[in-house]
Amino acid sequence: MPNTVSQKTIGRLSLYRRLLQALANKGVRYIYSHQIAVIASATAAQVRRDWMAIGYSGSPTKGYEVTELIDAIGKFLDSPKEQKVALVGIGNLGRAILIFFAGRRPKLNIVAAFDNDPYKINRVIHGCKCYHIDQLKTVSDETGIDVGIIAVPASEAQKAAENMVAAGIKGILNFAPTPLRVGNNVYVEDIDMTMSLEKVAFFARQGNFERNFTSGEYE
């Protein structure tokens, strides 16, 4: 079951699916674990363990059938029915998120956006209607939203998270550069772009480093 699989495994499965879809678009039909391991910065053994976790096994002679594997990962990762997402914050980042995710995952859709800017309220922005933040619970109750994305300044992020929790949202993707205080029954994934850029800049200055493909970390 998905809740017995580690967060890292779920992340790798999502990465595999994206890489496999790119290969399928190029007409690739079969792939071996060591081939996907190279482009996923993993080991062949790790790839095989991850795919065994979703109950998929390949042919010793042909390898893994790409489209079947994409479907198997999708059945494991995706909800049987559509999951609806709320986006809080329609600044430059929020707009970019709307554009990026439009149509990318049929069963995972941003169905409503929220802001406190009067100019944005009741407008359709990149195909998504924007509501006042005070309407979050009402709209969530009406549409069945259970996932939220925070794309507001750090000073507003905690309040946005509290509004989401009050609305019954159980999973939050946080782009604000600040930790959130939520209950144990809410899953939070932090995307700190400043920290990531600083890490990249630091390692870019080092010159000599090797990546541990088992852990995905630099040593």
Descriptive account of the structure:
This protein has 219 residues and is α/β, with parallel strands linked by helices. It has 2 domains: 76 residues, Arc Repressor Mutant, subunit A (Orthogonal Bundle); 113 residues, NAD(P)-binding Rossmann-like Domain (Rossmann fold). It is built from 8 helices and 11 strands. Strands 5-6-4-3-7-8-9 form a 7-stranded mixed sheet, with helices on both faces. Strand 10 and strand 11 form a beta hairpin. Helix 1 runs antiparallel to helix 4 and helix 2 crosses helix 3. It is globular and about 60 Å long. The two termini are 33 Å apart.
Helix/strand-derived category reads: alpha/beta
Low-confidence stretches: 213-219
Query: Count of DSSP helices?
Result: 8
The largest sheet has its strands arranged as 5-6-4-3-7-8-9
**What is the CATH C-level name of the largest domain?**
Alpha Beta
Shape: globular
Order of helices and strands: HEHHEHEHEEEHEHEEHEE
Largest sheet: 7 strands, mixed
Number of domains: 2
